[in-house]
Amino acid sequence: MLRWYLTPGNNEQGRRLVRPQKLETMNNKKPIATPEVAIEKKPNATPEVAIEKNIETILKLEKDLVKGRSTAEHIADKVTTFAGSSPFILLHVLWFGGWILFNEGLIPGIQPIDKFPYSFLTLIVSLEAIFLTLLVLMSQNRMAIEADHRAKLDLQINMLDEQETTIILKTVQNIAQHLGLKLEVKESTKGLFEETDLHQVAASLEKKSEKHPKKIKDKT
Q: DSSP strand E in the chain: where?
């Protein structure tokens, strides 16, 4: 008769497994213990660990994109971020209000330098709008390039996932055939056992998009 013993070990090595002891029950002999063998305890692959790993991978990709930006792109991002904030709006409200009060002669002892219609203020604001527009366009172009990069990466991951799924389906089908099992596969799902032709899917999508009406005619 064979019996296994599982004894607790320290936290670092995990549990320890004792080799089977041969019991001579018929002769009432004492069991002979053999040397113990330590088994290394591997960390469990929990969903939390997988989530943390995915988050770290995403953050690393984002850091790589940030490091790849030029100095001008960093400046454009900082300026556009500040331009879209509440302090930027408050700063302009105070600036325009103070400029109007200053040049309307409402502050005693100060001579106006840009009376109505505030031509100099208009010039400054126009120049500011031009540079802000250029910086916003630069930031948008950079964001479009990064979005295109993420879309290509997402497409690559989806293609790999589709290929792996196809291999799994073929493996399951081969196992069923080897065991003599009959798989009920519908006619509409037989294509899942073959690799998807992306060019054919794209051509079919484009063809159907062209048939879709783009404008709705008025009946009146």
A: 2-7, 16-22, 36-38
Cis status, amide bond into 213, omega within 30 of 0: no
Distances in Å between the alpha carbon of 99 and those of 85, 110, 119, 156?
22, 12, 12, 56
CA pair distance 73, 53, nearest whole angstrom: 29
Would you say 139 and 73 are in contact if contact means Cβ atoms under 8 Å apart? yes
Across all residues in the chain, what is the average pLDDT? 78
Distance, in Å, from the CA atom of 49 to the CA atom of 54, rounded to the nearest integer, reads: 9
Q: Do residues 174 and 166 touch, judged by C-beta distance below 8 A?
A: no
75/84 Cα distance (integer angstroms): 14
Annotated domain spans of the chain? 2-38, 70-195
2 or 77: which leads in pLDDT: 77
Record the pTM. 0.60
